Amino acid sequence: MLFEFDAEQRLWQDTVHKAVLKECPPALVRAVADDGADPTPLWRGYVDLGWTELTDPADAVELAIVLEELGRATDPTPYLATLTRFAPLAPEFADPARSGTAVHSGVTATPAGGGWILEGTSRYVLDGDRADRLAVVTDAGVFVVPATAVTAARTPAFDPVLHLAEVTFTQVRVGTGDRSSADPARARHLALTGTALTMVGACRRALDLVLDHVRTRRQFDAPIGSFQAVQHKAADMHVAVERARALAYFAALTIAEDDPRRPLAAAMAKASAGECQALVFRNAVQLFGAMGHTWENDLQFAVKRAKAGELMLGGATEHRAFVADHAAGGVS
Amino acid sequence: MRLSFDDDVEAFRAEFAAFLEANLPAEAEAAERSRSTAHLPAWARRWQRRQFDEGWLLPGNPPEFGGRNATVIQQYVHREELSRRRICHSFNPQGVGIIAASLLSFGTEEQKHHWAVPILRAEITAALGMSEPGAGSDLASLRTRADLDGDHFTVNGQKVWTSGAHDADVLLAFVRTDQDAPKHKGISVLLVPTDTPGVTRRPFASYTGPDDKDFNEVFFENVRVPAENLVGPLNQGWRVANGSLGHERTLMWLGEAERLEAVVRDFRPTGDLEKDWYATLVMDLQALRLLGSAALARAARGEQDVPALSVLKVFGSEAAQHALEHVLEASGPDGLAHPARTAPYFHMSFDDDSASWFNRFARSFGGTIAGGTSEIQRTIIAERVLGLPRR
Prior knowledge:
The complex is a heterodimer.
Chain A: H1 7-23, H2 26-35, H3 40-49, H4 60-72, H5 79-89, E1 100-103, E2 107-112, E3 115-126, E4 133-138, E5 141-146, E6 151-155, E7 164-174, E8 179-180, H6 184-216, E9 218-219, E10 222-223, H7 228-256, H8 262-288, H9 299-310, H10 316-326
Helix pairs in contact in A: 1-4, 4-6, 4-7, 5-6, 6-7, 6-8, 6-9, 7-8, 8-9, 8-10
Chain B: H1 7-23, H2 42-53, H3 72-84, H4 93-106, H5 109-120, E1 126-129, E2 145-149, E3 152-160, E4 170-176, E5 187-193, E6 199-205, E7 213-226, E8 230-231, H6 237-266, H7 271-300, H8 306-331, H9 357-369, H10 374-385
């Protein structure tokens, strides 16, 4: 394998990076967190840019590039849920203009009159309070239902920009036309990879903020970034980000090429992103000193997004156990 | 980014595999083992020369320097095949990977043909004379001096840690040629044949055993070196050093990847904790391979990004060290036995790769110390990759 962006991918990365800086600047994230600004226009911007059309698995690397950049920016829209939770569970239901998410547990499907009745409650559903559609995993298959068919209540999260919800299905009637043929196990590979990329992007953002801080903050008549103890913590963050980033893109590549290593690669991506955020959170907050503890400092958005990712879809320890069980003799 | 390659690349791979099939020395032939990193038994010389003659030693080079003008991706595939089969293409790795490579970058045409080609063809071996008793991490403070006097330099001073020097025919020595210039600006590079009068080499043992002698002290006492042995311009040796360090770090992370690969192969984890260690090791190896493939591609295009290699060096060496520490711990009382073999003997690898777990762990500090310590690598990453201010 050769792990290097080709010319087209580099151009795409540059395009996406510039667009995210323009469309989703830190001031917008701050406005969402502090003033409850509505991110819907931003979502429509992504639709207009064509980013919500990246649902073909062959485009997984291009999607990965968008997800990493949006992770850096603490994207306040339901993009991650739509493209990596909903889309792989509902490939036949693609609609670039509408958002979506996935419900993995708590809902039962009971056969009734040629269809099914969905019943139950699921907690901590990513964007469950605002996604236009939900792909619901049940023992009888995966069903796609409109948000209007369920009741949802947002659950406050430590990441102030993150939307989580408790979603309740009460006598929701679905038919065969609402059923998706997707395999939830395979869909999970993209969900894991997408969350890992978000975490990697958030960790890069945390590192960037730390670097700006230690270059300018002076103590003992010198920028603190010239002190070796500080430099070495920053270097460790960089190495951890590079490692996690490599494994996240490897996972995206296995999805794009439908490589048999995709379950293993997805687990490695999520595990290494988890390890990365642990080190980056610790070093970033430490190196910012007391300033890192304040609400007004944007560092909070990056480290909280990274930490939130670790608490979703299984943490590093769980995924390492999977890796150990599925990588006897190594990866290739 | 790609997991698989086009047909022409796979054809190249198949051609190399066929070459290996037809030319790899048999195990019986390789009974005499290499005793240092510059000692080539006759069979190892024949093996390296065969690769040179067929253009497989360094495929990216033109044929006159042991290659076949291979593309970046072909060079990568070549390394994959060697590493997959655990084959050393040279048992004088620094000679081929650092010294000949530095000569091809910075040497004159005469030096390329007179020194680099014989090193590549395994007619002679070479060792790298950088460190000194007072110049380790602070390499630029080196004090071995060379005074130009007409058609020759007179060299006086001492090197240390000079791997394989007692078995090498020539040293690439970094010396001070301007005593008054700032320390980075007065350094030059000389090729010093080790049979020159006044050169004394004293091998000494590593802590793994009294017979494990690769380290050397090298003393220079009024050593006359022809002026034409100057590599690169006078007093511009720091540039050469940077290039050489880049080659060295590349060689080192490739070595760490192979060590990690060997641990993946040889470690049999039992229980949840050991499996957890194993998973980390598998992930480290995969990440190192991925990041390394991008670095190899940059290098093959001629892009010099030496600071970025520090990421691979520090990451690879520390990953190998952690893995070996864990495997040694997992070995329990069996790990006490010494000497012991922890993997099947393989005649195309250095014997260290199958030594006891303690030796494999103990040697891992070579990775975190040689070629710039992990502490120095972190400082390089902070200042030259991340742009933090210097003290």
